[in-house]
TrEMBL record:
Key words of the record: Aminotransferase, Pyridoxal phosphate, Transferase
PROSITE patterns for the chain: AA_TRANSFER_CLASS_3
GO molecular function terms noted in the UniProt entry: diaminobutyrate-2-oxoglutarate transaminase activity
CDD domains: OAT_like
Full protein name: Diaminobutyrate--2-oxoglutarate transaminase
InterPro entries attached to this UniProt entry: Aminotrans_3, Aminotrans_3_PPA_site, Dat, Ectoine_EctB, PyrdxlP-dep_Trfase, PyrdxlP-dep_Trfase_major, PyrdxlP-dep_Trfase_small
Source domain of life: Bacteria
Pathway linked to the protein: Amine and polyamine biosynthesis; ectoine biosynthesis; L-ectoine from L-aspartate 4-semialdehyde: step 1/3
Cofactor(s), by name: pyridoxal 5'-phosphate
Its EC number(s): 2.6.1.76
Family recorded in the similarity comment: Belongs to the class-III pyridoxal-phosphate-dependent aminotransferase family.
UniProt xrefs under SUPFAM superfamilies: PLP-dependent transferases
Annotated NCBIfam families: dat (TIGR00709), ectoine_ectB (TIGR02407), PRK09264.1 (NF006733)
Length: 423
């Protein structure tokens, strides 16, 4: 038994699927202690859009540390925070005509969701939230109350209240109009469901199985929120920062949420940082009404600012567009023909291979993922019963490495699907 198994809590998870002690990493590859290379199609669960140890950002961090820059400052004014705010405003918000104030929360995504829900309730004076079946928003009590997975919810140990789940446009819910359904609930005095303070939505349900909400659906959802005086909160923690193509995942619908939550890759270098973007009129917080010792990671401010400059220097959106085209073409022409019931879904550089109609045995997909790992590819399973393989490499992955990783996936699927057919 190694020291991890001996001492670390049973709650550990990723290390169970990828049982190697990693030592170094560079862009889209991680290296074990024996220097064996693994292609990374997990990207820190979305925290490493710019890859492992990008030199441009690393150099900024080294310079800041060597200059004795402030490393911890609560929410005090610092040059690092100012530089990030000014850079984010100039390069991200203003070009998109977005007028948001920024709230820096504790350093994880769930902290941002908690703050957003708390603020929405304070602004509207209502306790309820609408969330969506299949959604994932975090593991602390407020955010897990808005998360659909029953096993994860059970871990809370107490009743999770004040959230009503609505159908996402997927599966059985594709057969009827989910926006019309919500409209009927809000208009019906006998629905038994009170008007919520906010509707919390992922434009792409990542952990839910890579389910991309139709653009028209998002437009109608925005209209529904406006007409019923409900705040629209977009959880862009995993699919923001360029993952879906443009910087914000909601840009394709040309909508403006009232509140946006960001974390993961906003930290630039895998460093913990989260923030809430909120329309100025919603900023009714009293000083210290929502706080935290680590609200604003100084190193992450430095890395995040450098990341914004880096993405423009390397024309990252154009790179994502080219790699998206490759991934989609590969999945359509190389993976779907393996079995007629394989489904693919995705956008930008987050894609899913769905085996739901191929098998209801999650062990089959688990074995496929393990075969990928045995052939030096890190890839995780998501969706209902973990029946979806999630392709989510760093946005900066070299094309030849992307192709190599995709070839490993095909080999693993072919061998295991054929074995199932002949069993």
């Amino acid at each position: 038994m190694n020291v991890f198994e001996l001492v670390e809590s049973n709650v550990r998870s990723y290390c169970r699927a990828f049982p190697v002690v990693f030592q170094t990493a560079e862009n889209a590859k991680m290296y074990g202690e024996s220097n064996e290379a693994y292609i990374d199609f997990l990207a820190g669960a979305g925290a490493l859009n710019y890859g492992h140890n990008p030199p441009f950002i690393k150099e900024r961090l080294i310079q800041y540390i060597q200059s004795n820059g402030v490393m911890h400052g609560l929410d005090m004014y610092t040059t690092a925070k100012r530089d990030f705010i000014e850079t984010f405003t100039k390069h991200i918000l203003l070009p998109r005509n977005l007028n948001y104030k920024m709230q820096f929360c504790g350093p994880t995504g769930t902290n941002a969701v908690e703050a957003a829900l708390k603020l929405a309730r304070k602004v509207k004076g209502r306790t309820g939230i609408f969330s969506f079946m299949g959604g994932f928003h975090g593991m602390s009590l407020g955010s897990i109350a808005a998360t659909g997975n029953l096993e994860q919810r059970a871990g809370a140990g107490i009743p999770l209240q004040n959230v009503t789940f609505m159908p996402y446009p997927y599966g059985y819910a594709e057969s009827f109009d989910t926006i019309e359904y919500m409209e009927s609930i809000l208009m019906d005095p006998n629905s038994g469901i009170e008007k919520p303070a906010a509707i919390l939505v992922e434009t792409v349900q990542a952990e839910g199985g890579i389910i991309v909400a139709p653009t028209e659906w998002l437009i109608r959802l925005r209209k529904l929120c406006t007409e019923h005086d409900i705040l629209m909160i977009c959880d862009d923690i995993q699919v923001g920062c360029g993952r879906a193509g443009q910087f914000f995942s909601f840009e394709r619908a040309e909508i403006v949420p009232d509140i946006v939550t960001l974390s993961k890759s906003i930290g630039g270098y895998g460093l913990p940082l989260s923030l809430v973007l909120l329309k100025p009129e919603l900023d009714i917080w009293k000083p210290a009404e929502h706080n935290g010792t680590f609200r604003g990671n100084q190193l992450a401010f430095v890395a995040a600012m450098a990341a914004i400059e880096y993405r423009e220097e390397i024309y990252l959106e154009k790179q994502v567009e080219e790699k998206e085209a490759y991934i989609e073409d590969f999945l359509v022409n190389e993976i779907m023909p393996i079995h007629e019931d394989i489904k693919i879904r995705g956008i930008g550089m987050i894609w899913g291979i769905d085996f739901t109609n191929v098998t209801n045995d999650s062990e089959v997909v688990k074995r496929i993922a393990r075969a990928c790992f045995d052939n030096k590819l890190i890839i995780e399973r998501v969706g209902r019963n973990d029946l979806v393989l999630k392709i989510m490499p760093p946005l900066t992955i070299e094309m030849e490495v992307l192709q190599e990783g995709c070839a490993v996936i095909k080999q693993a699927i072919v061998s295991h699907i054929e074995a199932q057919i002949h069993s």
